[in-house]
Amino acid sequence: MFGRFTALSDISMTIGRGEFVTLLGPSGSGKTTFLMILSGFEAPTSGRLTLDGREMTETPPEARGFGMVFQGYALFPHMTVEDNIAFPLKVQGRSSADVNRRVKQMVEMVGLGGHGHKRPAGLSGGQQQRVALARALAYEPPVLLLDEPFSALDKNLRGQMQDEMRRIHQETGTTFVFVTHDQEEALALSSRIAIFEKGTLQQLAPPREVYERPANRFVAEFLGDVNILPVKDSRIEGRAIRLPEGQGAHLAIRPEYMGLALSEPAEGNALPARLTDLTYLGAGTRLSLTTGSGAALVLHMPTMRLPEGLAPGAGVWTTWEPSRGFLL
Amino acid sequence: MTRSRIFLIAPLLVFLAGAYLVPFLGVMRWSVTLPQPGFGQYAVALSDPLVLGVIWRTVRICAMVTVISVVLAYAITLVWVRGAPVTRMVIELCILIPFWISVLTRAFGWLALLSNRGLINTLAQDLGLWAEPLTLVRNEFGVIVGMVHFLVPFAVFPLASAMRSVDERVLLAARGMGASRARIFWQVFVPMTKGGIFGATLLVFVFSIGFFVTPAILGGGRSVMVAELIWLRIFQSPDWGLGAAISVILMAGIGILLGLTMKYAKGSGK
């Protein structure tokens, strides 16, 4: 166990060694403040932070020995890639042979062989990102903190860097705490996701659980699309519906778990609706439906499973497995 | 550049041409025509031990003034840019007020402070710190004090613009890696502001070379600098040719210095 912490508005979190925890939330939700408290650049007004049972709430950032990747990378513009990576090693007073060996190793690990003598200004965004990562990991910190490291990269590069980040996380075994506002990024990378909103922790769970069993409506709506239908006496819009276990006055179903039928199915949950719009997205198609009571639904279907000749205005049925929904 | 923009700067160009370029061309003409045609005055200027001595003294004093001014300005700017809000306001006033006080007033002010019967010497003698008055003025020391006082505010602006463009997160990153304050200052902050240091140094040095009033008053005729020498040649002796030749040499020297530094600055990507 790496630490136990209480701050912001009553936040308590234990992060295990080698975990990849993502702090996810809209801007102003407190996720960055939380990271800054972990780093030591900001102090909590109350609460404690411990590492391996050692108290470190008052430890200044320079004494924590954590690695940090800042938004915008914060590379030393006047130093070469190698000098950037060597900086923390020199601070530790390592021998120059040791520094050189380690720098070479890090440059290789992040795939920047041949760029060692360039300055940051001569590198692309993705390459600068790699330098920042190499610099932060060079001295083998127990914890690596990352503040929106991919926010400046374009979408393709993001995907690449995410794979890279996962590989490096597995190779080094370092604990990663990662701030982002990109839901897909959080789902793709994390062992657990912490959802923040208005300074409080909404849910802390593995990606699949956060997505499929969100703790509350905020989490459900923040992470991807969701259809929410009011439930009354086990009925939705007057139709008897089999509900999943749980408590709540609303049934929530992810768009990709809803199906489409042209006539009323013999069994299972179904609601009549009218198709209002249809967006072709290649592999998938996005459908907009309106139910009898006027509620808007969104469906994501594989294009290959779409009935032929479907056009806006058509009367359809939407179906779903009872276990695929959750009550809020 | 579009036609309309040329139109906007045209009045200034005309003024500069009329007020500086044309008279300077006249000075250049004197340097090769007085008292007789030829480059004789240049030969004199570059061989006369008196002239060479003054040029050497000027370069030496200006170099010292530049180093002292830039170092002091760096410290002041650091507090101005990175200090607490109240401190910033006080420093800002301290930087701006000198601009409103004429160079003449300031020189006489220093005279009142530094002279043998000035404030500092009388006070020190009254307190028994030293018995005989120290010679603080009418020598190089006085000249350097007066010039530094005048030039520090000018060095502040290029430094401030360089310091303001330093990304705070880079400093935080260095701190997070365990670097001490001294290491962050010398290995990160100073190198990141070297463009400003370079600009301030150049500005102060070039500016200081042409100083006239301050050295004339605080040097008391004993440490004559090149601008005063030119003035003496032209106004107090009939050596117009020699004065003009020294002027041209001075302009050429500054031109070469600027050219070289521009070339270096381009080469280093700043």
TrEMBL record, chain A:
E.C. numbers: 3.6.3.25
A molecular-function term among this protein's GO annotations: transmembrane transporter activity
Superkingdom of origin: Bacteria
GO cellular component term, pick one: ATP-binding cassette (ABC) transporter complex
Entry-linked SMART domains: AAA (SM00382)
UniProt keyword annotation of ATP-binding present: yes
Regions annotated as coiled coil: none
Residue ranges of every copy of the ABC transporter domain listed in the record: 1-223
SUPFAM superfamilies: MOP-like, P-loop containing nucleoside triphosphate hydrolases
InterPro entries (alphabetical): AAA+_ATPase (IPR003593), ABC_SmlMolc_Importer (IPR050093), ABC_transporter-like_ATP-bd (IPR003439), ABC_transporter-like_CS (IPR017871), Mo/tungstate-bd_C_term_dom (IPR008995), P-loop_NTPase (IPR027417), Transp-assoc_OB_typ2 (IPR013611)
Alphabetic keyword roster: ATP-binding, Hydrolase, Nucleotide-binding, Transport
Gene Ontology BP annotations: quaternary ammonium group transport
Top class in the EC scheme: hydrolase
Protein name as it appears in the record: Sulfate/thiosulfate import ATP-binding protein CysA
Native species: Pseudogemmobacter humi
TrEMBL record, chain B:
Gene Ontology CC: plasma membrane
GO BP: transmembrane transport
Protein's membrane topology: Multi-pass membrane protein
Listed Pfam families: BPD_transp_1 (PF00528)
Signal peptide: none
Keyword Transport listed: yes
Key word Membrane present: yes
Superkingdom per UniProt: Bacteria
Domain ABC transmembrane type-1: 55-261
Cellular localization per UniProt: Cell membrane
Record key words, sorted: Cell membrane, Membrane, Transmembrane, Transmembrane helix, Transport
Ranges that cross the membrane: 58-81, 93-113, 141-160, 197-220, 240-260
PROSITE patterns for this protein: ABC_TM1
Family matches, as Gene3D superfamilies: MetI-like (1.10.3720.10)
Family, as annotated: Belongs to the binding-protein-dependent transport system permease family. CysTW subfamily.
Protein name: Putrescine transport system permease protein PotH
Protein's organism: Pseudogemmobacter humi
